[in-house]
Each structure stands twice: as C-alpha cells, then as structure tokens.
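Inputs:
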Amino acid sequence: MSPVRVRFAPSPTGFFHIGSARTALFNWLYARHTGGVFVLRIEDTDQARNSEEFLNLIYDSLRWLGMNWDEGPEIGGAFGPYRQSERAPVYREYLEKLKATGRTYEKDGAVYFKLLGERSEVFDEHRKKTVTKVAAAPSVIDDMIRGRVERVEDEDFVIVRSDGNPVFHFVNVVDDIAMQITHVIRGEDHLSNTSKHVELFKAFGAPVPSYAHIPLILKQNGPGKMSKRDQGALIEEYQKRGFLPEALVNFLCLLGWNPGGDREKMPIAEIIQLFDLPGVNQSNARFDEKKLAHMNMAYLLELPADRFVAAARDFFVKHSAAHPTRAALAASEDYFRAVMLLSQPKIKGVEELPAYTGYFFTEEFPIDPKVKEKVMAKGDPKTRLTELIVAVPTMDFSTDATIEEGIKKLANEKSLGFGDYQAVARLAVSGTNAGPSITSIFRLLGGKRTVHRLERFLAGL
RNA sequence: GUCCCCAUCGUCUAGCCUGGUUAGGACACUACCCUUUCACGGUAAGAACCGGGGUUCGAAUCCCCGUGGGGACGCCA
C-alpha cells in the first residue's frame, strides 16, 4: 500500500473562505490520520485574476488555523515547483505525451481533448448553440463518500487555451499524476468535473486516484451554497474578530463530519485520530454562526490565563484606534491582566472585551439608560449611594472578601441586604448591569476611584 | 433544459450499512434552579424520520416513483 498523498489546491483569485478552509482541513486531517503527506499546490493559471495579496492570505489563513503543509510553496519538496504558474515545462511535456496518443486536436487555436465514441451535431436548448455530442462510455467514479457514481462525459473539452495557457482540468490532472496524489478530497461542486478528470487519467495511462467529494456548506440564510460575499464567509474576518483558531477548526470539522455518538468538543489530536473519509456526511450543511460562537466560548473558558491575556492584548492592539481600547493599552500590565482575567469566564468572544471592560480604563464610560431606569425605580437608590460614599473609605479593600464584609456590614446596620447596594453601585461605577462581581470591580478600581464615581453619579441625578 | 449528488427537530447531527430505539445529543428558543448583577452551570419543556407505493410479522433503516434542496453544464478554478 503506497503512502497517502493528498493535496489542497486553491487558486489565489479571492478571499479565503470557510468552504476552502474546510476542504483544506479535511485533506490535512486525512494526511495526519494516515501518516501521509499534505501537499499545498497553488492553482494560479488564471493570470487575469490572480493576486499576490490573495496568495499571502491563503498562507496566513492556513497557518493561523494550524494546518502545516509537508510540501508546497515556501518549503519546497521533491515534486516542485508547487505553483502552477511555474510549471509550464511540465504541462508542455504532458501535452506532448497526450498528443502522441492521438487524443487531442486543435480548433480555433485551442487544443481539445478528444473523447472516444461516435459524434453527432445537436442543438443545445440551454446554451442556444449547436454542439458536437460524443456517444462515449460512462466514466465510473468510485467515491469514498458517495460510492459508485456514473456520468457520461459527452463533449470534447478545451485543455489548452488559444493563448497557450493550459486550463484547470488539464493542469489539475497532470499535477495529480506528477505529484503522485493518491486521494483527491474536494468539494462536491467538482463531482461533475470528475468524469473529465477520469478520462484524462485514463488517456495518460495513469492510475485514477481515490476520490472523496465532501458536502458543500450552505449559507445560513437563503438559498444556495456559501460564497465569499456571504455574511461570515471569510476566514480573515474570524481572525480579526479574535476567534480562537482551535474553536473554528473544531466547528469546521463538525460541519459534515462527526465521530459518531455525541462527541463535539475535541482536541485536534483526538480529531486526527478519529477522522476518516467514510465518516464524512453526504448531505450539505448549513453554516450556523451561533453554534460557532458557542464553541468559541467553550474554548475561551478553558484557555490558560497567559494565553487568554495574550489573545486579549492582541485584539486590543489590532483595534487600538478606539478610545477605551487605547486607554486599556496605556494601563499597567498587571491591571490589564487582572481586568481581562476577571472577564474571561463571562464573555463569549474576545471581541466583546473592549466594550465589556471599557469602564475599567476610562472615566468616560456610557450609562445604559434602560438599566438606569430600571435600577432607579427600585427602593431608594439615592440613599444607598449616599451611605456607600460614607462607608467605602472605611472598608478594607485588600480582597474581594473584605469588601464583601464591608458592604454586608453596612447593609446589616440599615437592616438591608447586599443586593440593595449591588445594583446601584454597579450602575454608578460601570454604567451597566452586566459584569464581574461588584466586589471585584471595587477592588480593581480602588477606593478613591470608586468613591469618585459614586459621587459623580449621585451628583448627576 | 440536460446530467450528477442529497433528504431525521428551526440548525448541526446520532441511529441507517447489519430492519424491532420511549428516535439520542448539541446550538437556538422557553421555564425553573443556582446566584450579588450579567454570564457560566444544572433541571425540565417544546421541537424531526419530505410524500406515496412496495418488500417484510415488523421500515427512519432495504427497493421504486414523486416532491423538495444542492451542484455542474466557460478558451474560470
């Protein structure tokens, strides 16, 4: 049994999106699962639409998601070069081979691949033109996910354009032969192309690789598959928004594959161990942002403190143009760390952090009017504030527990509960009703700033 | 239009291959519990086998047809 060699073959003609990432992921997982080789090959034969910027985006995204390639651009390998734009001699050589078999002909300056079978002229209603149909034998695709698929390829097709550039079907097959690819794992949108490819492999006298056509990812709302223009489609966006790559990877794995049973959140090492092609679903999956957000939260909760703080800082640096964000970066490292760790168990995503923690770093934080209305309507918040302003300076601010003691003591004296002070104090120092425990907020702000905010809020009523 | 693929809660899915389940889990939604707010967590509830035929004692599971969804039909990849 020859070792598994798979390839991910993107073309740098647009942003790197969810669907491409998952195709890459399934290839990568299969290579890692089998101990095989993961090849990255850049299909940049469309000179008009390629760009270096998009190419770098592919590299960045793959690396961010943790998919390292064993052969490919920037690292090389025994079957290079790995950019099709640099492989013209290979294509010339293979074209000569094919010409020698008599399976090509030229028309309008382009080279066509000639199918085997009887020809007839037919008017195609859909395309509104007369085409030459070939009564060819069906191509058989033995797909590891879909089983046996039969399709008749019934028209000769272009393999080299009139400008001399070879087209996708040709270079794709040639490179799969030349790079000794054993398994072709790609989106189901390629299933109809596969008959072309099978016929080319056979014409070259090369073994046909095993195919695995994975289901497509559908857009979350409305009809059709997800495209680069749909909400939430771009990998770059998740990176910018501070998603954890391991969460995104875990989520992506579960879109069309699962290990059977109830397991969902799994470390990548375990996924590698369990992943296999027969476990991949046959039906398309709809993308669900909320489930991804939940997965991200689950990973965030478990993230070691240092990594969480680093992720937070990274996000703040990227968004340092905003005012509270800049103020946060100006704060001391210890203070920043303390605030972030206080927020870690409370948030769903790193992107919530600037708004969630803003009041720790600036005096100009907003007061939520709805929360204010609600809090001020209950009990006698003004009196509670006045009492706190007197009591806070007498409290021991060294730990949450001592602050709690202080507030409880005050509450006892007035025959009230902790809760009678909590809501209004929180509103006065943070402007909202969501956040860490009030004792932690007090402690981090310090007695002086706490009193100042209580006084300012009371004065503004 | 032609060809190809697919079909279990709103969504992702387990179960299907090798027929017998109170059809299980997760996200979302709702209620309650926990609670010092907000989250987290816990418990509960609602929620699905696309339709019709067939095979069989018995069909989500096997077969056929219909319907629905998706994809491909480029000198794009």
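Chain A has a mean pLDDT of 93. Flag for discussion at group meeting.
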